[in-house]
Amino acid sequence: MRGYGTRAHFWCMVTACLCNQQVFALPDLKDITFRNTGTEVRDFIADFADINFNLFCKEAFLVASCAAPVYVAAHAIDETVHRQFYDESCHKNTCDIGCLRLCLVEDMGIAVPIAALSIGCWISKNDDTSLLGRDLLAGMFSIWIAKDIVKNCVTRTCCYRPYSGLFPKKLVMGGFPSGHAATLTFTTVLLGLQKGIYWALPAGLYAIAVGGGLLACNYHYVSQIVAGAALGSLFAVAAHRVINERLDERFSFEFYSDERGRPMIGAAYSF
């Protein structure tokens, strides 16, 4: 497979505990070998392009079709839910999550752990996990670009953020879709598709907590969070297809005849 060599040892403590594996341990520095940077960059760019191309696959259209009615239903209850967390008479939020806002709502509180997980997977000795980490990063960059394009180009009322006591009382654009929800849903769905429930469960619980924090702080309406989750699911399905395509490149089969003319089948596996 392209661009793989000896990688640094990485263990995720939460996942290790869930899977009853070895607890976090630092690698022996003498075992670390730097990989071909040029090859890794080339593969990252190729995966980034393929993920965006696969947004038009039939699975992505199925996700979009399922998400559309959920978004419409969520949009109908936006103001009702918003009134549960906001007091218009004194322009205050009715729910104060305190210091949790740093890790549940602020941009860096979301970006740092997801980036750390992606890079940790990328440097894993396991080829499948390394590929997953690379495409987690590629998908994150794709989502950030996509949601910024939507936020800057779409100026309909659905893009207005709800009133929040954390900011001056005025209408502000940029609420549709929720980038936090998109990033965390992408991570959760892709981990679930590639690694199973033990990887997806911690990310899913964190995504739910962040969604609750966004509502409590009046950063987003419910429909904007649903739209972000739909966007993240689209990219997760696309990245899942790209990863499977890369994994299939390891295997090759060949039909040929031996020296006696008998039909033979050859199989090869690339490490």
Structure description:
The chain has helices spanning 13-18, 37-53, 58-76, 78-85, 100-104, 107-122, 127-153, 179-195, 197-216, 222-248, and strands at residues 86-87, 92-93, 251-257, 263-269. The protein has 10 helices and 4 strands; from the N terminus they run ααααββααααααββ. Strand 3 and strand 4 (263-269) form a beta hairpin. It has one domain (13-269). The chain is mostly helical and 271 residues long. Helix 7 (127-153) runs antiparallel to helix 10. The strands form 2 sheets. It has a two-stranded antiparallel ribbon. It has a two-stranded antiparallel sheet with strand order 3-4. 60% of the residues lie in helices and 7% in strands.
Number of domains: 1
Q: Could you estimate the helical fraction of the residues in percent?
A: 55-70%
- Give the CA-CA distance, first to last residue: 6 Å
Count the DSSP helices.
Answer: 10
Biggest sheet statistics: 2 strands, antiparallel
* Shape summary: elongated
Strand order of the largest sheet: 1-2
Tell me the series of helices and strands, N- to C-terminal: HHHHEEHHHHHHEE
Mean pLDDT: 81
Please give the number of β-strands: 4
* Beta fraction: 5-15%
Low-confidence regions? 1-34
In angstroms, what is the radius of gyration? 22 Å
What structural category arises from helix and sheet content? Answer: mainly alpha
